[in-house]
Amino acid sequence: MATAPPIAPPAPVPTRKAKPGGSGPVRRHWRLYLAISPFYLLFLCFGLIPVGFSLYLSLHRWDGLGKMEWAGLSQYRYLLGDSQFWHAIGNTLIIWAMATLPMLFIAMVCAVMLNSAVRFKNFYRFAYFLPNVTSVVAVAIIFGSVFSTNFGLANAVLEGLGLDQVAWLNTPWGIKVAIASLMTWQWTGYNAIIYLAGLQTIPTELYEAARVDGAGPVQTFFRITVPLMRPVILFTLVVSTITGLQSFSEPQVLLQTASNSSTFAGGPDNAGQTMVLYFFQQTFDNNDFGYGAAISWGIFLIVAVFAIINWRLVQRKGK
Amino acid sequence: MTVRRTRTMKGVRSGGVGLHAGLVLGVLLSLFPFYWTVVMSTHTSTEIFQFPPKLLPGSHFDENIGKLFDSVDFFGSMLNSAIVAGSVTFLVLFFDSLAAFVFAKFKFPGRKLLFLVMMGIFMVPAQLQAIPQFVIMARIGWIGSLTALIVPAAANAFGIFWMRQYMSGAIHDELLDASKLDGCGFLRQYWHVALPVVRPGLAFLGIFTFMAQWNDYAWPLIALTNPDHVTLQVALSQLNGVHGTTDYGMVMTGALLALIPLLVVFAIGARQMIADLARGAIR
């Protein structure tokens, strides 16, 4: 029978083992290993060695120039009692919530509208996505001007409405609002595009069946759209958690606008200081490399915990 | 049939007004900051400090541009950004697609493990590497030069993963077998068989990489220690730090000019990029 050819393909495996002597697998496949080597070499030099080195550093006292001094776990002990670090964690979480919750909600509303739009869909998508490709530095400068105390548009609107002005960039809550609204503006369209792609995978028959059964648009949204979109919503939540907890450029540029004191200033009462901003301040403003390394491990732990919580949410749905 | 069609048409039209009003509101919110940048960059700082604020573009754009070019080496830093973003994009496209080709189409000992290791590297946050990278770069004398930005970024896990996904579907094994019979070696297979097929995937990775590098800020801020030799984003931030509260017209002109090259790149690749991003997210 014609069974012989299908058996033939696995043949290379035996031949590989048949010649163990002269040419080992590495020698046989040297081209392949060479082709993938650049990434691993770069990772070794600028990824793995740095991570190991950072662990080593966090056990020392070092200003970047002089001699390293063994410190044991004292940097970590200090970190646990460092009220400014806890304050920075709180700021990061508050700013993250202020930015992410409205962002994902508005994105969903936009996506539902886009999904039912017939014309100009490509134009809408282009316009909504545009904020996401702009540089954070330029955008933070623009938002800094909108929230400026003396001439900003936000205060001009408040004054036009007969309300009191707010020193946005110089009050603890004002600076958080400014940072969060910047993030919301930059990421809402991105999430809307992703939600739209998810919505397009939901079969239209489901909606038609719901309409036949007499379900209104609100009911349809919460009973059909949200449950089916759950994986996509979780994806956007994971992405915005990981990026949001590591926010740096947004507060850094906005706080620079507010005060010229130092490159990594924390703003009024350090209210705009995020975890990563605090890390940069301790490391590169104070030249405290050992403590900076300990902070970076603290941040890593916090982001990992949140990533695991997110992952658990996905898992529970899977069961 | 005709009755049904007119009914749906009517339904769309009646719901259409509110729908399009909502969508247009979203567009206005998305685009307003760009318009506002244009408005502010065309006014002198005296005009900007007046109340009520000017809502229409003024006539002092050339004045602001002149002051901008006097304050920072704008084109010098733009050239630096172009060198970094351009070379990183070129290197990433080459190294990532080459490695992706291997992972997608060849079997060799350790393949699974090496791929898993690579995906694990995805998870390592950048701050963990920032200090040691700075120390290492300082030792080998790269701090202050563009090399410090280019070399570590020359290959990345995201790009390899992305191209591998793309290649496993797009390149047919029969094509590779046929080319092998014709006497094509590994490199010629990569160059003549694989690359032509995956051009759309490369285009996405290229645009994505270029924009990410052009916008990168934290690491260049640390690594480029000579204030006269920086990338565009760092120059912009210097401008904001020094003149931010005094000459907003000029600073906003800088922000506007820095955005233009990026908007051009995005306008060229937007359609495919948006489609690919969405597809990647819902998998």
TrEMBL record, chain A:
Subcellular location per the Swiss-Prot or TrEMBL entry: Cell membrane
Location of the region described as Disordered in the Swiss-Prot/TrEMBL record: 1-24
Cited InterPro entries: ABC_transporter_permease (IPR051393), MetI-like (IPR000515), MetI-like_sf (IPR035906)
ABC transmembrane type-1 domain boundaries: 89-310
Pro residues biased stretches: 1-13
Keywords tagged on the record: Cell membrane, Membrane, Transmembrane, Transmembrane helix, Transport
Sequence similarity: Belongs to the binding-protein-dependent transport system permease family.
Protein name in the entry: Cytochrome c biogenesis protein
Species the sequence originates in: Streptomyces camponoticapitis
